Inverse folding.
């Protein structure tokens, strides 16, 4: 009898008092491969102007993403001065329906192989380069930080500042012009325009290669002026 009365009491309880199981919210599962694919697409677009053979060597990202239901978009932002090769830390921003759900830094490494001038043999300090000293081969842009020659003719006639190994890229910052005017040398100073040409004798106050601007002392007036080296005996004043 007591059990019967207890059952009746339970039936009399309001329906709202009965506990209900929570329904899980819909979830977007974004795989690691999808995230890396979005980063790779950005890196390839960034490197496109390099005119190089580009390979993404490393993307330091792991794991799937569990996101709320909605439209998922990715934004990848590189450092302002990064040119698209070598290592860099890029920002990965993941949005769902335009709401930011993930913002993190990802380390990447991009190899960009481009045709550039290399040493065909070991080049010693002080050597003046000839065509036979050089060749063209593919090398990683990260090795030279953009300071390289595309054409052998651009490097011929320049002087090596420090020893270079065979097959190493010839960096622009490791070459210098060969001075044709020495410090203290007597030179002819030329000043001319379409109407008049004036010459004077001067003394170079420093060395210079063709095209360099050096200081020259006019031996008649003793005044020092800036003049551009033309050849081994002549400098020119612009006026």
């Amino acid at each position: 009898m007591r059990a019967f009365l207890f059952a009746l009491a339970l039936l009399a309880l309001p329906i709202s008092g009965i506990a209900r199981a929570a329904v899980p919210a819909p979830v977007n599962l974004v795989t690691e491969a999808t995230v890396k694919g979005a980063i790779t697409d950005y890196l390839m677009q960034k490197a496109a102007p390099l005119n190089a053979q580009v390979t993404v060597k490393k993307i330091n990202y792991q794991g799937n993403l569990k996101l709320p239901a909605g439209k998922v978009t990715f934004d990848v932002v590189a450092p302002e001065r990064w040119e698209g090769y070598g290592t860099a830390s890029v920002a990965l921003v993941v949005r769902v329906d335009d709401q930011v759900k993930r913002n993190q830094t990802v380390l990447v490494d991009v190899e960009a192989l481009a045709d550039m001038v290399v040493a065909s043999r070991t080049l010693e300090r002080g050597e003046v380069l000839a065509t036979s000293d050089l060749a063209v081969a593919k090398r990683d842009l990260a090795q030279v930080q953009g300071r390289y020659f595309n054409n052998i003719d651009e490097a011929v006639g320049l002087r090596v500042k420090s020893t270079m190994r065979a097959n190493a890229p010839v960096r622009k910052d490791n070459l210098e012009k060969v001075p044709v005017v020495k410090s203290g040398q007597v030179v002819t100073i030329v000043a001319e325009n379409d109407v008049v040409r004036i010459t004077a004798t001067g003394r170079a106050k420093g060395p210079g290669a063709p095209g360099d601007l050096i200081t020259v002392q006019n031996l008649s007036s003793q005044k020092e002026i800036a003049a551009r080296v033309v050849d081994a005996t002549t400098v020119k004043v612009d006026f």
The chain has three domains: 30-112, 113-176, 186-237. The first strand starts at residue 27 and ends at 30. Helices lie at 2-11, 32-47, 152-155.
